[in-house]
User: Fold this.
Amino acid sequence: MITLTINGLEVSVEKGTTLLEAAQFLGFPIPTLCHMEGLSPYGACRLCVVEIGEGPKARLVSSCTYPVEEGLKVRTASARVLNARKMVLELLLASCPQSKTIQDLASAHAIRQQRFRQEYEDCILCGRCVRMCAEQMMANAIGFRGRGAKRSLGTPFDAKSEVCRQCGGCIYVCPACELRCTYTEPEKAICGGCANLAPPCVQKDPFDDMMCYMNPCVACEISQES
Assistant:
């Protein structure tokens, strides 16, 4: 067993467990996008970043791909982590502003305006469809092509795939294919009408180390009841 500390709580988990799995075991919410249960971890979107280590050596890592380490200290909702997630979401909105999934995530993180120019590239290269086709459908009909800015998804040589069964699994898991119902005006404020969000708690602790990670926020629920 590996013993580590997450948000000040000591936990023991099996070797090979990821930080995401360990945090979920304790009930700490970590947003994910490219990660999906049943598919291998990929770490493409970087939305699940957490902060590990202490002091100047502390760094951000993707929790879905980082394995637990003995004595590791992890923070899932520090100010640094939340700022990084907001930046990631704003960049994703620039690539795929019509995605309901990304819109809801942005609303949950109190993002109300899009600072970057919208490119309408649609595909965010999360790799969900590729892994679904390879790992669940055993077809390998699609994959990544090119590198850097030229990276894209498709069939080899853009030819019609002979192994594709047109099952629709790639579309089912694609966050870009789930369009928001108010896409008629994408330049307007971020839509979170479908997210059913609880009021966010923005209080920090005296050390500026942890933001509120409870979902839903207990303090907000108490204030509403009173």
Summary: Confidence is low (pLDDT under 50) at residues 199-208, 219-226.
